[in-house]
């Protein structure tokens, strides 16, 4: 903090300035950077850059959870291999999330209880063999720290940070730094999600993934109607029936009918089989 020249400001009042770029606290700079980007299409990209200044990691994912539907991928970024992290995220929201302790933690939390939950999961600690193989071993991920908090009744958000084999696991100092910035990361993420939902603007990373899904689905289901195609694309993106209905401007019952017809044409029974069809190699049955 330093004083300004009073004469230059045209008065006798005392004015001091704070250069947040020089603040030694990583949480302060991180807060400023993320607040500036809340609601922006590049939020997750800025999240990737900002957290990298605090601790070394490989991938970051931002997900929204609900007790009654699969998680929604808000965005994902990587410092080393973005295609890989998109593939892992698709596996996760396609069904592997059911073996993740974060789902149990969030489901048991009360509406904004003031708590931020920090859950660490090394590859060797994952009990479910299919989940471990699909989301950790085949991708080289060795450690994950998940920062989560509830933001309204039945919903919670998680910021997941991953390390790969080339980096090794988070050490004690790095884990402590993540604990220190966890309230900032989760609070900013909640506000970002609430804002983009209010204005109906999906993050840029979700648009990129949607393009990939649409391209693959177009090759697999040429007989799908326009609405059936739109519904299936959004199911693979992790949207709920209500969210699909709101985005397409149709009733939830219409979403269910289009989904039923599309599944019959694609010869799949549920969303897991749809994921396995559209995104092969995910290990989903």
From TrEMBL:
Q: Name one Pfam family in it.
A: GerE
Instruction: Give the domain of life.
Output: Bacteria
Mind listing the UniProt keywords for this protein, alphabetically?
A: DNA-binding, Transcription, Transcription regulation
Q: Recall the GO molecular function terms of this protein's record.
A: DNA binding
Q: Quick check: keyword DNA-binding in the entry?
A: yes
Q: Which SMART domains match?
A: HTH_LUXR
Q: Which GO terms describe its biological process?
A: regulation of DNA-templated transcription
Q: What is this protein called?
A: LuxR family transcriptional regulator
